[in-house]
């Protein structure tokens, strides 16, 4: 049966969206002298480490996949995560002594969230009778490696969730807090418990998570995981390795063609957990090298996809997330979400895909997944998308 004819209004919207998509893509990598020369979601920068010394337009804004393909289980999407989200270059010392440590990010947690980051990796320690975000020296937080009291950053998360009632944020805690109920106290002080996703409803044995729609409806919009197994029983905070798979972090996680699992994690191809974190950052962060490193994410993503048994990463963790020589980690996230959610090579194309066809700007129509049906809203109509196995995934 032939598909029903499209109305003139739908055709007009399709045409406009396609033009916007092409126009947006054309600006990435275009020459610029300032941010005013670049479109929305772009800034003007360079990447000498990759041999690009002339300024060009670079992406700094993620597309939220749930804004385009709605209502799927949480574990069907890929989200951008900042590694050591609190370790911000230029952040003044709060302890009265000069900080001597390394840095992983360049802007505030609030800006990270506004730019589309949906996962935060936070290292928490006891310091000065409080819980602080801190780098360690031999497993210990000192006043010269500390950044801010954890409650201050958690209040930024609370403000974002309050201002954006349909967004979901995940926090991964590298947990060195030993004070009784220390984590619970700071989450309570930040007024975040009203968004808490309870352990009792977290799926086990690799089962699907609830849909993002259900999570938002219940206001279960904050997922928190700890690296300390004891906190699950004592404070009701989910033990990370019961719910999450991870590849190796640091330098072993950025070796081309390789994707070993982290020693605490079960094998990446295990189906006993339904969330997969792909770590992609060097052991020692170097700001000026990050643009080159982040532009190589796709190659590692392919290796991790294979190592995980043709499974996409739900979380992609990086340093200096805005640094690249073009589309960077944002383009890779778009590509993963597009292939997974509608069979196109970018999530933006899912919004204008009609009757099984990706727009010409997304030529990888053959990249579809077999025997899976997803629902996506395109111009207000619910359509069913049948997909077949990818010939060249990612």
From TrEMBL:
One of the GO BP terms on file:
lipid metabolic process
This protein's name: PI-PLC X domain-containing protein
Gene Ontology terms for molecular function = phosphoric diester hydrolase activity
Q: Does the keyword Glycoprotein apply?
A: no
Q: Which PROSITE patterns match?
A: PIPLC_X_DOMAIN
- TM region positions: none
**Gene3D superfamilies referenced in this protein's UniProt entry, alphabetically:** Phosphatidylinositol (PI) phosphodiesterase
Keywords of the record: Signal
**Has UniProt tagged this entry with the keyword Signal?**
yes
Q: InterPro entries, per this entry?
A: PI-PLC_domain, PLC-like_Pdiesterase_TIM-brl
Coiled coil (UniProt feature): none
Signal sequence, start to end = 1-30
- Tell me which species this is from: Panicum virgatum (Blackwell switchgrass)
